[in-house]
Specification:
By secondary structure, this protein is mainly alpha-helical. It has a domain of about 120 residues: Methane Monooxygenase Hydroxylase, Chain G, domain 1, CATH 1.20.58. About 75% of the residues lie in helices and about 0% in strands. It has four helices and two strands, in the order E-E-H-H-H-H. The protein has a two-stranded antiparallel ribbon. A hairpin with a 2-residue loop joins strand 1 and strand 2. It is rod-shaped. It is found in: Golgi apparatus, trans-Golgi network membrane. Belongs to the syntaxin family. Its main location: Golgi.
């Protein structure tokens, strides 16, 4: 759904299990920023809707990094780490979406900076901030994705090992059956030979 130039993300109204990230407030700020973008003039940073949203997104990034550092201390491939990995990846996606929406407001202002009371230096400053925010999130996402790929590889190796062990077990079973058959045949031959010897001895 398009609202005031923003695409409403389903994740924007969800709170994760740990309660670390609540996106609805930031989404409301983004919507407010879009609604007022065409009317606000130059104002102190503390009152500028852009900086209000920026602070909330930065707070989300700080919480993301804090949770990520906790994730790094958790033993690999445990249930807790896997669960936290999913939460962190979801948080990365939500923050990326918020930064994208903030970038849209920068693009709108860039069409006519004078109308919005913003000069080129301020626009560049805002672009640098959103770029840096993306870099911070991307760094976390890359580590999480690499860890997930490694986990998938380990599971594949484990599955292959189980299959190999199963194949070895089947081969051993077949060899045992073959040896049992040979032993049975040898036993029958010995019985036959013993019977012939008994017959010969009886006729001597």
């Amino acid at each position: 759904m398009l609202v005031s130039g923003f695409v409403a993300s389903p994740s924007s109204t969800k709170l994760n299990r740990s309660g670390s990230f609540l996106w609805f407030g930031t989404f409301s700020r983004l919507r407010k920023l879009a609604d007022h973008l065409s009317t606000f003039s130059r104002m102190p940073s503390a009152q500028d809707p852009f900086y209000v949203v920026k602070e909330e997104i930065q707070e989300s990034i700080d919480k993301l990094q804090s949770s990520f550092h906790h994730w790094e201390r958790i033993p690999a491939n445990t249930g807790e780490q896997i669960h936290l990995s999913k939460e962190l990846l979801a948080s990365c996606g939500s923050i990326d979406w918020q930064v994208d929406e903030l970038d849209k407001t920068i693009a709108v202002a860039a069409r006519d900076p004078a109308l919005y009371g913003i000069d080129e230096a301020e626009l560049e400053k805002r672009r640098r901030w959103t770029s840096n925010a993306r870099t911070q999130v991307s760094t976390v996402k890359k580590v999480l994705t690499r860890g997930k790929e490694q986990q998938d590889e380990e599971l594949d190796e484990l599955s292959a090992s189980v299959q190999r062990i199963g194949g070895v077990g089947l081969t051993i079973h077949e060899e045992l059956l073959q040896q049992e058959k040979i032993i049975d045949e040898l036993g029958m031959e010995m019985d036959s030979t013993s019977n012939r010897l008994d017959f010969v001895q009886c006729n001597v």
